[in-house]
From TrEMBL:
The lineage of its organism: Bacteria, Bacillati, Bacillota, Bacilli, Bacillales. It is found in: Cell membrane. Its main location: membrane. Residues 79-268 form the ABC transmembrane type-1 domain. One of its GO terms (biological process) is transmembrane transport. The chain crosses the membrane at residues 21-40, 78-103, 115-135, 147-168, 189-211, 251-268. PROSITE patterns: ABC_TM1. Belongs to the binding-protein-dependent transport system permease family. This is Carbohydrate ABC transporter membrane protein 2, CUT1 family.
Length: 283
């Protein structure tokens, strides 16, 4: 590499790179430290007390807390409930929002624009404002304290319809008309041509629907009465409330609930980051 190339590289080098790197590492440590502390506390003997914070990170260690909680609590059941509800909610949301968006975007029928305006208005109404009428509807359908009562009210996604409609609108009209002239039905047109083009949008909607369902507290708290149907956001506070002065058992329960999420994030990190960046750009 000649001297001119070195000079160009020096000019293009970010003078604040070291500062940005230091700030980024510092912020990362601040965010990850509570997780590290939780993991260390979860392997301490039950009833362990300390007067020095450093002792939380030093021996003795034991995994008996994990065995005890798994065998004698409902935490695995709550974990399973959260997974079932989040997965089914995500699948149904993707199916319904994609079909609705395709109909509004590509099919011709009366009041199409009016219906789309209602979807836009749905973004302006806070979710808390619909809780009471939603509860009354679910109660009248005898779905309180059931999986159906947890899942069905959460599958409506106005934002998903709006995002997918914008993607479907971008499909060239010539492609749609050619497929229809060749005898392609609307369902086949949706499945074979339009839907594959919207994979980035579908991935983003799916990721955030799953995260929203997994972390949802208010609706499961109101609609579930049986402990066996609790999801993690509802079950963990109930469990932790019985250990108001203790650290170890609540931290062990939180660690058991967090480990699957951490593993899933490490596996799907690229997809989650792409979903976040996509939503930020298109929003």
């Amino acid at each position: 590499m000649n001297k001119n190339s070195l000079k160009i590289l020096e000019k293009n080098r970010d003078p604040f790179r070291s500062v940005k790197l230091t700030v980024g590492i510092t912020i990362s440590i601040i965010f990850i430290f509570p997780i590290i502390w939780m993991m260390f506390v979860s392997v301490k003997p039950d009833g362990f007390m300390t007067t020095n914070p450093v002792e939380w990170f030093t021996p003795p260690y034991t995994f008996s807390n994990y065995v005890d909680l798994i065998m004698n609590s409902l935490i695995l059941r709550w974990l399973w409930n959260s997974l079932i509800v989040a997965v089914i909610t995500t699948i149904l949301t993707l199916v319904i929002t994609s079909l609705a968006a395709f109909a509004i975007s590509q099919m011709k029928f009366r009041f199409k624009n009016t219906i789309f305006i209602f979807f836009l208005l749905g973004l302006m109404i806070p979710g808390e404002a619909t809780i009471i009428p939603l509860y009354e509807i679910v109660k009248s359908l005898n779905m309180i304290d059931s999986y159906a009562g947890l899942i069905l009210p959460m599958i409506a996604s106005p934002l998903g319809v709006i995002i997918l409609k914008s993607f479907f609108d971008g499909v060239p009209r010539e492609v749609i008309e050619s497929a229809i002239m060749d005898g392609c039905s609307y369902l086949k047109l949706f499945y074979k041509i339009v839907l594959p083009l919207a994979k980035p949008a579908m991935a983003a909607i799916g990721i955030f629907t799953f995260i929203g369902s997994w972390n949802n507290f208010l609706w499961p708290y109101l609609s579930i009465l049986s402990e066996t149907l609790y999801t993690l956001p509802v079950g963990l506070p109930v469990f932790n409330s019985t250990y108001s002065q203790a650290y170890v058992q609540p931290m062990t329960a939180n660690a058991i609930a967090s480990i699957p999420v951490i593993v899933a994030f490490l596996i799907f990190e690229k997809q989650i980051v792409k979903g976040i960046s996509f939503t930020g750009i298109k929003g």
